[in-house]
């Protein structure tokens, strides 16, 4: 759509202009650093960073209703850089010129309402936001588009060169990092560290296919993360885990899209997200805060963070009601089907504490909650969701189990509308479905297969074993017709079909 066709009042704002003002702020000692540096933790106190905007107040000069109009009309642009998460350029990366933005089709994933059967089973209205429909099939692409665009910006400014990007992963981060890095080959090369035999084969295939250097490490994700942190402090590499503050900026787009898809009305809304490394819930809260402070939305939705009992350090932290007595203690994880969230020492925990406190303060009441769910409930609810038209991963099952738990604990009520994060495509975690259907999930997962939920293929063979077609042996016309009739009758019997008149 040409600019001349846009309303005059928003025409000057449709194509965003770059501006300065972003900087790193340490959540420990409050030190500030320029974003032109490749920083992941504070050089002074080793605490995580957030990217802040010195000119955030200038965003309030444009009325909230005008911002809504800008974003709604910006949908019509054909400019690739503004099709993805950077539709919200002013709130994500205003210093990055459009020519430095990397767009691979991420963002603006569909919000799909649960059918009546599933809503009745759960007890309230809810939607899944299918972030598995991002390019690498997970929500990680949002943060990676931001992080890699920031690197491209530094490359274009000739501030860095010969970039080696590195990350630790439970699967999804490695897929996203290697995909986005490969798009900028040879400017960026990527390397990923994965916990040996704790990543699904589907996820392992992704960084291999993108040409990344893949290293499998004994132990769990937290062990891989420590190695990556050491490499990033001792060598000239770019860290692409959510410790990278640019990742948080990109994942804030999840909140912006929800607000826009619900016509900017966040009243009685509940956003449910799984917690692994805690970057996503940090970003979701921060995104809603930014839109609230800019008067784009007039209330903050409830946020519910969900953890499995096999990896629940954030939940355990918030069990203490007195915030002055809370103490974060990492946990040793146990095997979880919500594999992407199987993290016992989340690097973004300081961000969660900082942002949740501000979120509740702005809301004027507690609006951020945390619940714990069983592995059995994660698997059962995922299977039920997917039998009712969804394509959710085990983390999406974790969210649905969490919503049910929140309803039971009266954190939410039946008048609320919930939006659940299906963080990845169901195919990425289909191995757990296969194990469940074949009653082969290892005992340490603490999951029993319900016979009513098992669905396995049925092999239908003809009565005559000589009448079986194959690629090597084709049947004659008469034999083939008999084969078709025989198999059709057997299927009709299994399905209790009635003969058409």
TrEMBL record:
<keyword id="KW-0456">Lyase</keyword>
<dbReference type="GO" id="GO:0009097">
    <property type="term" value="P:isoleucine biosynthetic process"/>
</dbReference>
<dbReference type="GO" id="GO:0004795">
    <property type="term" value="F:threonine synthase activity"/>
</dbReference>
<dbReference type="GO" id="GO:0004794">
    <property type="term" value="F:threonine deaminase activity"/>
</dbReference>
<dbReference type="InterPro" id="IPR036052">
    <property type="entry name" value="TrpB-like_PALP_sf"/>
</dbReference>
<protein>
    <recommendedName>
        <fullName>Threonine synthase</fullName>
        <ecNumber>4.2.3.1</ecNumber>
    </recommendedName>
</protein>
<dbReference type="GO" id="GO:0003941">
    <property type="term" value="F:L-serine ammonia-lyase activity"/>
</dbReference>
<keyword id="KW-0028">Amino-acid biosynthesis</keyword>
<dbReference type="GO" id="GO:0009088">
    <property type="term" value="P:threonine biosynthetic process"/>
</dbReference>
<dbReference type="InterPro" id="IPR001926">
    <property type="entry name" value="TrpB-like_PALP"/>
</dbReference>
<dbReference type="InterPro" id="IPR050147">
    <property type="entry name" value="Ser/Thr_Dehydratase"/>
</dbReference>
<feature type="modified residue" description="N6-(pyridoxal phosphate)lysine">
    <location>
        <position position="140"/>
    </location>
</feature>
<keyword id="KW-0791">Threonine biosynthesis</keyword>
<dbReference type="GO" id="GO:0006565">
    <property type="term" value="P:L-serine catabolic process"/>
</dbReference>
<feature type="domain" description="Tryptophan synthase beta chain-like PALP">
    <location>
        <begin position="104"/>
        <end position="417"/>
    </location>
</feature>
<dbReference type="InterPro" id="IPR000634">
    <property type="entry name" value="Ser/Thr_deHydtase_PyrdxlP-BS"/>
</dbReference>
<dbReference type="GO" id="GO:0030170">
    <property type="term" value="F:pyridoxal phosphate binding"/>
</dbReference>
<comment type="similarity">
    <text>Belongs to the threonine synthase family.</text>
</comment>
<dbReference type="InterPro" id="IPR004450">
    <property type="entry name" value="Thr_synthase-like"/>
</dbReference>
<keyword id="KW-0663">Pyridoxal phosphate</keyword>
<dbReference type="Pfam" id="PF00291">
    <property type="entry name" value="PALP"/>
</dbReference>
<comment type="pathway">
    <text>Amino-acid biosynthesis; L-threonine biosynthesis; L-threonine from L-aspartate: step 5/5.</text>
</comment>
<dbReference type="GO" id="GO:0006567">
    <property type="term" value="P:L-threonine catabolic process"/>
</dbReference>
């Amino acid at each position: 759509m040409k600019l001349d066709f846009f309303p005059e009042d928003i025409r000057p704002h449709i194509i965003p202009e770059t501006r300065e003002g972003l900087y790193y702020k340490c959540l420990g000692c409050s030190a500030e650093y320029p974003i032109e540096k490749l920083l992941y933790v504070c050089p002074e106190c080793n605490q995580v960073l957030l990217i802040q905007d010195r000119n955030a107040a200038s965003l309030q000069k444009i009325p909230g209703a005008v911002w809504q109009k800008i974003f709604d009309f910006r949908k019509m642009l054909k400019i690739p850089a503004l099709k993805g998460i950077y539709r919200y350029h002013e709130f994500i990366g205003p210093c990055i010129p459009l020519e430095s933005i990397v767009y691979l089709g991420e963002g603006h994933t569909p919000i799909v309402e649960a059918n009546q059967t599933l809503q009745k089973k759960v007890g309230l209205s809810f939607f899944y936001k299918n972030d598995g429909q991002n390019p690498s099939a997970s929500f990680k692409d949002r943060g990676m588009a931001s992080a890699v665009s920031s690197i491209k910006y530094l490359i274009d400014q000739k501030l860095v060169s010969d970039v080696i990007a590195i990350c630790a992963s439970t699967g999804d981060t490695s897929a996203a990092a290697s995909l986005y890095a490969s798009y900028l080959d040879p400017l960026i090369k990527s390397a990923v560290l994965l916990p040996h035999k704790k990543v699904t084969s589907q996820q392992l295939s992704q960084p291999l296919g993108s040409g990344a250097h893949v290293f499998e490490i004994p132990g769990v994700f937290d062990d891989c993360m420590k190695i990556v942190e050491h490499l990033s402090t001792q060598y000239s590499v770019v860290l692409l885990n959510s410790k990278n503050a640019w990742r948080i900026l990109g994942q804030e787009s999840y909140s912006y899209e929800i607000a826009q898809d619900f016509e900017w009305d966040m009243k009685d809304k509940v956003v449910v997200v799984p917690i692994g490394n805690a970057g996503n819930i940090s970003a979701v809260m921060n995104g809603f805060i930014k839109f609230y402070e800019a008067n784009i939305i007039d209330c903050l939705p409830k946020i519910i963070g969900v953890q499995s009992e096999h990896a629940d350090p954030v939940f355990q932290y918030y069990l203490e009601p007195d915030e002055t007595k809370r103490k974060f203690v990492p946990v040793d994880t146990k095997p979880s089907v919500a594999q992407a969230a199987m993290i016992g020492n989340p690097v973004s925990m300081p961000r969660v504490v900082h942002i949740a406190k501000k979120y509740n303060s702005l809301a004027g009441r507690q609006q951020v909650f945390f619940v714990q769910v069983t592995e059995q409930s994660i698997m059962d609810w995922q299977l039920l969701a997917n039998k009712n038209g969804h394509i959710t991963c085990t983390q999406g099952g974790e969210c649905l189990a969490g919503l049910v738990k929140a309803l039971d604990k009266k954190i939410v009520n039946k008048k609320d509308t919930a939006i659940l994060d299906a963080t990845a495509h169901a195919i990425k975690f289909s191995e757990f479905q296969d194990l469940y259907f074949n009653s082969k999930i290892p005992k340490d997962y603490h999951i029993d297969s319900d016979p009513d939920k098992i669905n396995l293929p049925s092999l239908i063979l003809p009565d005559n074993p000589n009448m079986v077609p194959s690629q090597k042996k084709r049947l004659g016309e008469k034999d083939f017709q008999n084969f078709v009739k025989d198999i059709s009758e057997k299927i009709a019997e299994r399905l209790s079909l009635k003969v058409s008149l």
